[in-house]
């Protein structure tokens, strides 16, 4: 059974800092890995999706990398802003269909960027 | 284009009642999945529908059920509500089986 872990659980940084959020998964047989952002009481906003054949994806100040062999993905946020404050979740989609293609989520990293 | 729409946004129900939640996926998306989110358990998979067929079901009791209509809209039903069913219920749609998932704003269910 795929286990997805996110470290740290919470992070507080001053505005302007570059930061890295970590995601690890136990089963490397994944189809893709997706990063989401969730604001309090709201739904999930898709940030980046990395296919298993890719090593990284970039969108604006965000860069996500994937290392399947070590079971790790990182989300890099450059020049953090208070508006980046939210919970960030990673989710791995399994490669094989015997258990379906449901996303396996980590518990998230709660990020606070202070002015 | 319109995103994933979930209705209602908030619900308060009494123990023992039943509830139906609705999800309209992004136009052209045929896969709809449902997740339950609680502070203690995080996001847990409920079930997934593709072209009106339930393809996968998570580890939830039979009180949780769902269906998908020919226009890809989906509903989930929870019967005999328990206090522990209080959660944010999220719906995700995707074009195919293993493509990018897009989530709705969720339905906040409170059982009293």
Q: What this model shows, in words?
A:
The complex is a heterodimer of chains A (115) and B (112). In chain A, 0% of the residues lie in helices and 57% in strands. Chain A is built from no helices and 11 strands. Chain A has strands at residues 4-7, 10-14, 19-25, 30-38, 44-51, 56-59, 62-67, 72-77, 86-94, 104-105, 109-114. In chain A, strands 2, 4, 5, 9, 10 and 11 form a 6-stranded mixed β-sheet that branches. Chain A has a 5-stranded antiparallel β-sheet with strand order 1-3-8-7-6, with no helix packed on it. In chain A, 36% of the residues are buried. Chain B is mainly beta. The model of chain B has no long low-confidence stretch (mean pLDDT 94). In chain B, the strands form 2 sheets. In chain B, strands 2, 4, 5, 6, 9, 10 and 11 form a 7-stranded mixed β-sheet that branches. A 4-stranded antiparallel β-sheet of chain B has the order 1-3-8-7, with no helix packed on it. In chain B, a hairpin with a 2-residue loop joins strand 5 and strand 6.
Topology overview:
The complex is a heterodimer of chains A (about 120) and B (about 110).
Chain A: E1 4-7, E2 10-14, E3 19-25, E4 30-38, E5 44-51, E6 56-59, E7 62-67, E8 72-77, E9 86-94, E10 104-105, E11 109-114
Chain B: E1 5-7, E2 10-13, E3 19-24, E4 31-38, E5 42-50, E6 53-57, E7 64-68, E8 74-78, E9 87-94, E10 102-103, E11 107-111
Parallel strand pairs in B: 2-11
Antiparallel strand pairs in B: 1-3, 3-8, 4-5, 4-9, 5-6, 7-8, 9-10, 9-11
